[in-house]
């Protein structure tokens, strides 16, 4: 949340120089407050697990958030009861004419497919295009981030020789960026994917800014110049056991997966995994809601042209 201080206070200029949001008396008196409307397009097979992970992070904010759930199609889900889908999820045609403060598009287990081979690729493209005019800020997670890099900016991903799975150390590329407010210089993030987008290509693109990266995992946080699109290539929403569940699932299916890196004490998969990313994940989503949604979104969502960039 912003800090309200007199405009003439010396600290005000210092904090603004560090991109910390401070609010003048005049702006505070004229500010209208309402619940934020956030839409989640859930592409993961186990809808309930992913819902819970994301809602846990969204709930770690003093802002009131009204959440709606969106599905990409209405065909029966193999991993989620039909009653749950019909009761809680909406189809795109039901929300097409709505505006939202924020949109989250999750990852999907489609890492080895070309985007054009994805059964619902045309629907994904349509929703990404729609989001650029109907959501104040869009948070793309993992596969969705790669899909958006490709669709919006023409940046292709490539398949790694071996799946990257584990928890990896990352570094901030920029210090005084609102999204990274409160981050340590180094922090840890889970990754689980076969695909990668070239860090050099992302850094060279004139419409994108890389905010955080990893020697092992590459670019992690990337934001568009207009601050509308935030790309997160890892999984800050994962719980302590998510990578463990994936590892056991791969073993059960006859694969020979590597033990996830930096996850089990002494790399022993019989021991309880070490979770060291929960604080970072909560802070990341809280900063996104505050600086890239709440501080930018118009009070009247019917007028997206009323958005003003954060200072």
TrEMBL record:
Residues carrying the site annotation Important for acyl-CoA specificity: 111
Database matches in SUPFAM superfamilies: Class I glutamine amidotransferase-like
HAMAP family named in the record: MetA_acyltransf
Superkingdom of source: Bacteria
Family: Belongs to the MetA family.
Reaction it catalyzes: L-homoserine + succinyl-CoA = O-succinyl-L-homoserine + CoA
Compartment(s) where it occurs, according to its Swiss-Prot or TrEMBL record: Cytoplasm
Residues annotated as binding substrate: 163, 192, 249
CDD domains cross-referenced by the UniProt entry: GATase1_HTS
Name under which the protein is recorded: Homoserine O-succinyltransferase
PANTHER family: HOMOSERINE O-SUCCINYLTRANSFERASE
A GO-annotated cellular component: cytoplasm
Source organism of this protein record: Ferrimonas marina
UniProt keyword annotations, A-Z: Acyltransferase, Amino-acid biosynthesis, Cytoplasm, Methionine biosynthesis, Transferase
Biochemical pathway: Amino-acid biosynthesis; L-methionine biosynthesis via de novo pathway; O-succinyl-L-homoserine from L-homoserine: step 1/1
GO molecular function: homoserine O-acetyltransferase activity; homoserine O-succinyltransferase activity
Function: Transfers a succinyl group from succinyl-CoA to L-homoserine, forming succinyl-L-homoserine.
